[in-house]
Design goal:
single chain; mainly alpha; two-stranded parallel sheet; 3 helices; 2 strands
Length: 76
Amino acid sequence: MNLVAKEFMAARNNNDRTLILSWLAGASQELHRAINLNPYDIEQMADSIKFALEMTLEEQRKRMMKMRKIIVSTNI
């Protein structure tokens, strides 16, 4: 799951979209700008999806650019 999250960000060349990530995933320790949630909390999951869908393009790009910098700096 960690690699899938990182590949998703690597593929977003125009820095759009939002990453929703379980706080149980190891990648959540690195990717602080993702929307982290408890996968066992259905209400929180619904709220997180709603938040991601309503997020402005500017906010999406800001978050994605910060996470992509982390991925690029830690890539072997």
